[in-house]
Amino acid sequence: MIDAKLTTLLTLIEAQSYTKAAQMLSLTQPAVSQHIRGLEQEYGIKIFLKGTKGMVLTPEGKILEKYARREKALYSNLLNDFEAYRNGVNRFVIGITPSAEENIVPRVIATYCNQYPDTKITILTDTIRNITNKLKAYEVDIAIVEGHIPDKGLTSILLDTDYLCLIVSPDHPFADRKDVSLEEVKKERLIVRPRGAGTRHMFETYLEGCGESLQNFHVILEIDSVSTIKDLVQSNLGVSVIAHSTCISEERSGRLKVIPIVNFQTFREINLVCREDFSQKQLLDELCNIYRTCM
Fold it and tell me: Is 9:35 a contact under the CB 8 Å cutoff?
């Protein structure tokens, strides 16, 4: 069972107030203060900086918070796994990045669940950085992400390779072109993913290598949803550069046109990632086999 003092700490960090934390925990304010002092005495640290506005964690406090969240996640997973076992269910949490959510990954996971009806899978969509942290904190069992996660405690299995491409509406003047130049793309109404998105980073890295910048393009919208971007492009309200794996079905049906950009080469990996101590190797093998069958 998670230490009650750690639960108090996490609640206090969320509430940013001893009074509010006490109300949330149904404790008295002195009891909350006592829990925090108990943690400081136990570990010989100061958790919050004094003389600052708000409740700012010290470096040691941040370390304690990280492990408190990890312990809370482990305890929650323990209870969920006990409940799943009693009900004869195998339970997993899979983290995926937004672009992975838009390709065949959900279909792969759903296919696995149909083949193994005693399995329950929860999908969490987040940035690759947050998914990495959730993997290490045992909040996520495995992940399917674009790119490589360089971490000694994690193991990666290559599922596929992907690349960025320019997509336009079938009604766009580029639709019948064999290719276009980067200079031509600069003049188009461009819809991009927000900062922090993997495809955005890849595109900007490529531009930097060419001595270019996204600031030189006519960016009209920044949107996190890949589905919304595809809908807007399909309606000829702009063009976009996205991962090819996310628009294969639209390309095949003719709803979107994929036009090569001259000398535009941006390849990336799609990897299945897990902790080194993950024991359900059959799940990994089956997901890999289903993914490759669906391609």
Answer: yes
**Is residue 117 scored above 80 in pLDDT?**
yes
Phi and psi at 152, nearest 5°, equal -65, -25
Cα–chain center distance at 27: 36
Nearest alpha-carbon partner for 245 in 112, 113, 145, 168: 145
The structural domains of the chain, ordered by start, are 4-71 (1.10.10.10), 78-160+269-294 (3.40.190.10), 161-267 (3.40.190.10)
pTM: 0.61
Q: How far is residue 187 from each of residues 183, 201, 291, measured CA to CA in Å?
A: 7, 21, 38
Chain segment 1-37, per-residue pLDDT in tens: 778 999 999 999 999 999 999 999 999 999 999 999 9
**Per-chain mean pLDDT for the chain:** 88
**Per-residue confidence at 180, pLDDT binned at 50, 70, 90?**
very high
